[in-house]
């Protein structure tokens, strides 16, 4: 970005804001879309309660295998 010089506040207020087209929110949205295409997430629906750590770990392994398919 080039440096802009102004002689008064009025001149500064009237100047257009210099922004590159690839900057800003559009770039963020493209980045998020790219990440979702690379690693889509599939979560099982609902809330789960487990009696033991082993049950919870088995459910996590099963859910991670669903992610890969």
Outline the secondary-structure elements.
Blueprint (H helix, E strand, L loop, with lengths): L8 H6 L10 H14 L14 H16 L1
How would you describe this protein?
By secondary structure, this protein is an all-alpha fold. It contains three helices and no strands. It has helices spanning 9-14, 25-38, 53-68. The protein is rod-shaped and about 70 Å long.
Keywords:
single chain; 69 residues; rod-shaped; mainly alpha
How many strands, which pairing sense, and closed or not: the largest β-sheet? Answer: none
Assess the beta-strand content as a share of residues: under 5%
The N- and C-terminal alpha carbons lie at a distance of: 45 Å
Order of helices and strands: HHH
What general form does the structure show?
rod-shaped
* Average of the residue pLDDT scores: 82
Low-confidence stretches: none
Strand segment tally: 0
Rg on CA atoms, Å? 25 Å
Helix content: 40-55%
Count of alpha and pi helical runs: 3
Secondary-structure-derived class: mainly alpha
